[in-house]
Amino acid sequence: MSRSSLTYKISTGLFSALILLGVTMYLVDHDNVARTFETLGYPGYLVYPLALAKLLGLVAIWTRRSTTLKEWAYAGFFFDLVLAIMAHVAISDGEFAPAVIGLTLLLISHRSQRDMPEGT
């Protein structure tokens, strides 16, 4: 297994775990998450659609069906995480660390995925 393949699998696995933890929270504690969204300046009704989009994004990243779809998923996660960081910084609640960790893992995953030899 090449170094970039191992880096991809580790970073993508950790990123996926972080996103799945968030999606679980969106579904299990919907009312609290919706209130948090509203505090951040986003409408609370976005919780369920965002949870679905995140699940579909992970499917797109882990499957090898479409390179274009995978790139769109990476882009969607990038914008979601950047906006999350900005929203938390804007209200000064100090809760931006998970989004920063997620963004870092996403960038490592994307970079190592691009550097992997074909067929791995």
Topology:
Layout: H1 3-28, H2 30-39, H3 47-62, H4 67-91, H5 97-115
Helix pairs in contact: 1-3, 1-5, 3-4, 4-5
Proportion in β-strands: under 5%
Instruction: Work out the helix count.
Output: 5
Main beta sheet: none
The tally of strands reads: 0
Count up the domains. Answer: 1
Q: Which geometry do the CA atoms define?
A: elongated
Structural class: mainly alpha
Could you report the average pLDDT, rounded to the nearest whole number?
Answer: 92
List its salient traits.
elongated, mainly alpha
Task: Give a written overview of the molecule.
The protein has 120 residues and is an all-alpha fold. The chain has one domain. It is 80% helix and 0% strand. It contains 5 helices and no strands. It has helices at 3-28, 30-39, 47-62, 67-91, 97-115. Helix 1 packs antiparallel against helix 3 and helix 4 (67-91) packs antiparallel against helix 5 (97-115). The longest helix is centred in the N-terminal third of the chain and has 26 residues, at 3-28. The mean pLDDT is 92.
Compose a concise summary of this entry.
This protein is mostly helical and 120 residues long.
